[in-house]
Model the fold of this input.
Amino acid sequence: MGCETRQIQLDDGTTGTMMVCSRGQRGERCSVGLCGKDSVALCDYPVERDGKPATCDSPMCERHRHPVPGAVDTDWCEGHWNFEQRQRAKVAEEAS
Ligand SMILES: [Zn+2]
Ligand SMILES: [Zn+2]
Done:
């Protein structure tokens, strides 16, 4: 899930651009420690919040977002991406 730039009509008849994010607030910073870049997307990794299915929603910058192969408009944060890589490595190891 990411942010996009949209053309908007201003009151005085001119057009301007606006950042529209599908979720979360604008101006959030990347959740990776010491990175601090503007976030461009939120983590879509499925988690449980208050007993209900939700998504991680960690803000990620362009460098730290990880598009999920085969999934449209789905990105994972650094932590969840690494977690999945480890899970996959483990499964591959157990299978061999
Ligand atoms: Zn970052
Ligand atoms: Zn995440």
About this structure: The radius of gyration is 17 Å.
